[in-house]
């Protein structure tokens, strides 16, 4: 089943997607992660995307959509995937519907993580990411056992360049104007399930799994 995780920056999409994909045994497709990998390796896509990302703006639709369609074309998505960070506007939502239609597939379920602005700013200002495996930590909410070092792989932790308070507020404004209509798009299709993302990670995960199980009864939770 193809599942979309929607929600503002810092709602916990990446954190939840990592656990969900392990449970569901499907790939995690994070457009933010793919773009950051391209920026880090200096590809033409990365060079084009870098400035948009640092300003907290959306990377142009045609670049991101081409990247997602290419990723969905790989065989490991045949049994589904968890999309994190895409679609981010109505254009992208329609492009995704079209790409899945070509494969005779559709979006099964959309999970909307609702978070308050105060929580978002607190989470993103303190977020730490592993430069090696991409695991997420937080200076106070989820501190690593050893400062600056990833618990999972021993990699070095860093702060994302778009996690400065000013850029976080810009990303939030972009989310409200561009991405919020996507919520209505899937609500109208009766695919949307909303959860408060202000709760503890394990509580949010348990509630999501209960809903997913209704759609996929082979899931052991
Ligand atoms: P992207 O990487 O997708 O960033 P985002 O959507 O802003 O989301 P984040 O990764 O910041 O937050 P998240 O919801 O994943 O939260 P996380 O789990 O990390 O995109 C970055 C940029 O790329 C965009 O600004 C844009 O430029 C470009 N881009 C990407 N996709 C695009 C697209 N489709 N079109 C155009 N441009 C695109 O959690 C955050 C922190 O909180 C962590 O420290 C975590 O440990 C902690 N945390 C998580 N859940 C909880 C909890 N329940 N309780 C306590 N702490 C928690």
Biggest sheet character: 5 strands, parallel
Global outline: globular
Low-confidence stretches: none
Mean pLDDT: 94
How many separate helices?
8
* Rounded Rg: 17 Å
Share in β-strands: 15-25%
Order of helices and strands: EHEHHHEHEHEEEHEH
N-end to C-end Cα span: 16 Å
Question: What compounds sit in this structure?
Answer: BIS(adenosine)-5'-pentaphosphate
List the topology elements.
Layout: E1 2-6, H1 13-24, E2 28-30, H2 31-40, H3 44-55, H4 61-72, E3 81-84, H5 90-102, E4 107-114, H6 117-125, E5 127-130, E6 136-138, E7 157-158, H7 165-188, E8 192-196, H8 201-215
Helix pairs in contact: 1-8, 2-3, 4-5, 6-7
The protein binds BIS(adenosine)-5'-pentaphosphate (AP5).
Could you describe the 3D structure shown?
- Helices cover 48% and strands 15% of the residues.
- The protein is of the alpha/beta class and 221 residues long.
- A 5-stranded parallel sheet has the order 2-3-1-4-8, with helices on both faces.
- The longest helix has 24 residues, at 165-188.
- The protein is globular, with a radius of gyration of 17 Å.
- The relative contact order is 0.18.
- The structure holds BIS(adenosine)-5'-pentaphosphate.
- Residues 7, 9-15, 31-32, 35, 52-53, 56-59, 64, 85-86, 88, 92, 123-124, 127, 136-138, 141-142, 162, 171, 197, 200-201, 204 line the site of BIS(adenosine)-5'-pentaphosphate.
- Residues 7, 9-15, 31-32, 35, 52-53, 56-59, 64, 85-86, 88, 92, 123-124, 127, 136-138, 141-142, 162, 171, 197, 200-201, 204 line the site of BIS(adenosine)-5'-pentaphosphate (AP5).
């Amino acid at each position: 089943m193809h599942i979309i995780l929607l929600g503002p920056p810092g709602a916990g999409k990446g954190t939840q997607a990592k656990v969900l994909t392990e449970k569901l045994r499907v790939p995690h497709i994070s457009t933010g992660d793919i773009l950051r990998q391209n920026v880090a390796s200096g590809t033409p896509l990365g060079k084009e995307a870098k400035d948009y990302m640092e300003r907290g703006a959306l990377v142009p639709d045609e670049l991101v959509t081409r990247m997602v369609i290419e990723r969905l074309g790989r065989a490991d998505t045949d049994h589904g995937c968890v999309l994190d960070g895409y679609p981010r506007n109505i254009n992208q939502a329609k492009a995704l519907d079209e790409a899945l239609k070509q494969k005779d597939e559709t979006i099964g379920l959309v999970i909307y993580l609702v978070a308050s602005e105060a929580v978002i700013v607190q989470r993103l200002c303190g977020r730490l990411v592993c430069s090696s495996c991409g695991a997420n930590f937080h200076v106070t909410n989820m501190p690593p056992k050893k400062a600056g070092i990833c618990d999972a792989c021993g990699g070095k932790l860093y702060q994302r360049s778009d996690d400065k308070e000013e850029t976080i507020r810009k990303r939030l404004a972009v989310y409200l104007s561009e991405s919020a209509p996507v919520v209505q798009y899937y609500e109208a299709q009766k695919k949307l399930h909303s959860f408060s993302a202000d709760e503890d990670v394990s509580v949010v995960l348990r509630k999501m799994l209960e809903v997913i199980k209704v759609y996929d009864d082979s899931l052991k939770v």
